[in-house]
Amino acid sequence: MKFTIEEIKAEHQKVKNGADFPKYIQAIKNLGVSHYTVYVTDGSTAYFNSENNVANTGSKYDQLIISENLNLDHFKSRLKLHQQGGTDYMTFCRDCAENGVQGWKMDLNTMICTYFDTKGNDILEEKVPS
User: Fold this and answer.
1) What angle in degrees, to the nearest 10, is found between the helix axes of 89-98 and 72-83?
2) Which residues of 47-78 are buried (b: 16+ CB within 10 A; e: fewer)?
3) Which of 12, 98, 101, 118 is 20–30 Å from 76 (CA)?
4) What 3-state class would DSSP assign to 128?
5) Do β-strands 122-127 and 112-117 pair in parallel, antiparallel, or remain unpaired?
6) How far apart (Å, rounded) are the C-alpha atoms in residues 119 and 24?
7) Which residues, 6 or more positions from 62, have their beta carbon under 8 angstroms from its beta carbon?
8) What pTM does this model have?
9) All residues at 6 or more sequence positions from 113 whose CB lies less than 8 Å from its CB, including other chains
10) Could you give phi then psi for residue 46, rounded to 5 degrees?
């Protein structure tokens, strides 16, 4: 494994809001991360390299309850606000939970972020600016 969770955490510390996300993605891609999955319930994240080896962070915060009712339109508006720098990471995670978003998968090769609901259905796909 080329990267460590400590290196990823150091890069994540530099992110103050959603506007910093593209720089963070490039930094962890340079470390050797090929894709990762974030689970909103507790913030745990699984980071994978190109050989599909995984490093897990474990829980990052107290457990959030994910709404069973998906509100995609409201989530999109909160996501846009976050991407413009209007909310911090924890606020964004709470917005995900309140709107039925279980987590997201980020593919650093295609630069596509896919959000998914509590049933594991892909609900929104976005190209990340590089």
Assistant:
1) 170
2) bbbeeeeebebeebeeebebbeebeeeebeeb
3) 12
4) coil
5) antiparallel
6) 28
7) 42
8) 0.89
9) 104, 105, 106, 107, 125, 126, 128
10) -110, 120
The structure tokens 């413009």 sit at 84
Q: What number is the average pLDDT over the span 1-30?
A: 87
The yes-or-no verdict on residue 1 having pLDDT over 90 is: no
CA 13 to centroid of chain Cα atoms: 14
- Side chain identity, residue 69: N
Tell which residue, 53, 86, 74, 72, has the closest CA to residue 115. 72
Q: Percent of the chain beyond pLDDT 90?
A: 80
Residue with tokens 């630069």: 111
- φ, ψ of residue 31 to 5 degrees: the values are -75, -20
Do 31 and 56 meet the contact criterion of CB atoms below 8 Å apart?
no
* Residue found under tokens 């609901």: 117
What pLDDT is recorded for position 130? Answer: 66
Mean pLDDT confidence for 78-87 = 91
